[in-house]
Amino acid sequence: MEQGTVTGGVDKMLRDIEAEVRYTRPMIRRDALNPRVMEAIKKVPRHVFVGPHMQDSAYDNGPLPIGCGQTISQPYIVALMTDLANVGEEDSVLEVGTGSGYQAAVLAEVVRRVYSIEIIPELAEQAAERLRRLGYTNVKTRIGNGRKGWKEYAPFDAILVTATAEHIPRPLIDQLKNGGRLIIPVGSVYGHQELMVVEKDDAGEISEWSALPVAFVPLTGADES
Predict the structure, then answer these.
(1) Domain count, the chain
(2) Interval 131-136 mean pLDDT
């Protein structure tokens, strides 16, 4: 894409995200997203994460297909999930569902380390190469069942799941640090879904609240929780 087209698309995308935040603020419990999150959204070139036939729609505020029955999430949802994770510059985050790698790239702009798992080999390999090409040396990817988490690098300051689950996998809760947050869509693929914020306090006690009704593709892989 030409630079002028990219700049115009990014500016419109940011305005659309800000408008969505204003509209949904009673539910998401905030009037604006963290400026660091918005700067990350501005910086990551979303058009690189979609196919050639999707370039004209790359900066639209909506999900787009990326192949293998999967999608790249709506920019507002990517920004919101990143914001809800409440992470800092020195934190490490687990992402379940690498997809195109876009959410991982946004996270990589705001935290020290991102670990991302994708169950579909084709998407995992493409995302790893894309992230490498863009210079994201702080993202580590692997092919696997994200329901199990990534115990080798646990515990995590935050965990983001980019596909809906019927219930919250226990290994993800176990691998979350005390004081951390798990952001996950929960519900039926063909019915109602809610974006849940699961908080583990300093004593390890769990609480949760719903941020928003959402629509995600299903979280696949055997449920061993």
Answers:
(1) 1
(2) 98
Name the phi and psi angles at 96, rounded to 5. Answer: -105, 110
Asked if pLDDT for residue 2 goes beyond 70, the answer is no
Considering the domain boundaries, does residue 131 fall inside one? yes
Percent of the chain with pLDDT over 90: 92
Domain with 118, as residue range(s), is 3-213
Active site amino acids: 73
Measure the CA–CA gap between 23 and 131, rounded to whole angstroms. 32
CB contact at 8 A, 115 and 92: yes
Does the structure show a pLDDT above 90 at 159? Answer: yes
Amino acid 190: pLDDT: 83
pLDDT value of residue 222? 72
Half-sphere exposure of residue 187: CA atoms within 13 angstroms, side-chain side: 16
| Residue 108 forms part of a structural domain | yes
| Residue 223 domain-assigned (yes or no) | no
CA distance 113 to 5: 31
Residue 107 sits at the vertex; the CA angle it makes with 104 and 112, to the nearest 5 degrees, is 110
CA distance 115 to 93: 6
Contact in structure between 221 and 210 (CB atoms under 8 Å): no
Q: What is the DSSP string of 35-82?
A: HHHHHHHHHS-GGGGS-GGGGGGTTSSS-EEEETTEEEPPHHHHHHHH
Residue 191 has a pLDDT of 86
Supply the CATH number for residue 162's domain: 3.40.50.150
- Answer yes or no: is 123 within a domain: yes
